[in-house]
Amino acid sequence: MGAFETILILTLIGFLLLAAEAFVPGLVLGLLGAACLLGAVGVSYGNFGLLTGTLTLAGVAALTLVGFVGWMQVFPHTAVGRRIMLPKTLPSGESATAVSLLGQEGHALTPLRPSGTAVFQGGKVDVSSENDFIDAGSSVLVVREEGRRVFVRKKE
């Protein structure tokens, strides 16, 4: 087997090992893949000189970049990708309703000392009292939201 075939085989094995790294936990396959790619570049430098070695290095770097960008476009849509990627939006449900509660009236389901649970439009929401303790059953008004935290005040 000649040097050219060795370079092609090392490059192919290197890219296959890098791709397999996405499905197998640990760094072993990725490190072996990187070693194969560096080996291909080393064989190119050793057998064909500076120009061909540099072209091989540039080609491996370009293919790695293109492969990575392509993989990042495809991976989230695979079965494995959907299982391990976080969703881009909040799931619908109780925590998502807290986003639009500013100015809403409800009642404290539990005592707010200062945190507890209140009911707004039939949904339970974790809230914090802005100033004092509030007894269960008291009417409350949402006065402020900070991210997912909802602050209420006793309605007079």
Task: Give a short summary of the structure.
The protein is an alpha+beta fold and 156 residues long. It has 5 helices and 5 strands; from the N terminus they run H-H-H-H-H-E-E-E-E-E.
Present the secondary structure layout.
Elements: H1 3-21, H2 28-48, H3 50-74, H4 79-84, H5 94-97, E1 105-108, E2 115-120, E3 123-129, E4 139-146, E5 149-154
Parallel strand pairs: 3-5
Antiparallel strand pairs: 1-2, 1-4, 2-3, 4-5
Mean pLDDT: 86
Structural class: alpha+beta
Low-confidence stretches: 93-98
User: What are the secondary-structure elements, in order, as H or E?
Assistant: HHHHHEEEEE
End-to-end separation: 88 Å
User: What kind of sheet is the major sheet?
Assistant: 5 strands, mixed, barrel
Please count the beta strands (DSSP E, at least 2 residues each): 5
Share of β-strand residues = 15-25%
Helical run tally: 5
Shape designation? rod-shaped
Strand order of the largest sheet: 1-2-3-5-4
